[in-house]
Specification:
Belongs to the OmpW/AlkL family. Helices cover about 0% and strands about 70% of the residues. The protein is built from no helices and 16 strands. Strand 2 and strand 3 form a beta hairpin. The mean pLDDT is about 95.
């Protein structure tokens, strides 16, 4: 099965940041929402059990919030391949709901410092992924798809060659709608 979706990536961000090793109370970040295409490829072991590989890239801007409000910190692209183990319910006719759990490995690239900062680096990291969705089959092969995922993601961050350090909890919700093709 292959799915193509339009995907809204909505970070649910928070941060714990330090400057020169001293925690900055109230320092937080704001990460932009992104709308991107997504491709999913599924392999069914049985009519109910499948694995799905989720592919896409997302650009995001990072700004300061709280004690850092107004500061432009940087931007980055995320390559977050996710491997999901899914259970597909099959007793609902053309309606095919599913749930999934899996692992995500996010690679951060094209990181750029902004707003007077000289460097901006996010560390690649693993995270847990949860999923729920439904395929609404129009015929034997084609269908419409609605999907929601939650990825738990908390990379380490360094700004200005490590002067500012910490962890950024990104924890995005991913809302997708698209087309399913079943072989």
């Amino acid at each position: 099965m292959i799915r193509g979706r339009a995907l809204v990536v909505m970070p649910q961000e928070s941060a714990k940041l330090s400057i020169g090793g001293v925690r900055v109370p109230g320092a937080d970040v704001s990460i932009s929402t992104s709308v991107v295409p997504e491709l999913d490829i599924s392999y069914f072991f049985t009519k109910n059990i499948a694995v799905e590989l989720v592919l896409g890239v997302t650009p995001h801007n990072v700004k300061g919030a709280g004690a850092l409000a107004g500061a432009r910190i940087g931007s980055a692209w995320l390559l977050p391949p996710t491997l999901m183990l899914q259970y597909h319910f099959t007793d609902f006719g053309a309606f095919k709901p599913y749930v999934g759990v899996g692992v995500n490995y996010t690679v951060f690239f094209n990181e750029k410092a902004k707003g007077g900062f000289t460097s901006f680096n996010l560390q690649d990291t693993f995270g847990l992924a949860l999923q729920g969705g439904i395929d609404i089959m129009l015929d034997q092969h084609w269908g419409l798809n609605l999907d929601v995922k939650k990825i738990f993601l908390e990379p380490k961050v360094k700004v200005n060659a490590g002067l500012v350090t910490g962890k950024v909890k990104i924890d995005p919700w991913l809302f997708g709608a698209g087309i399913t093709y079943k072989f």
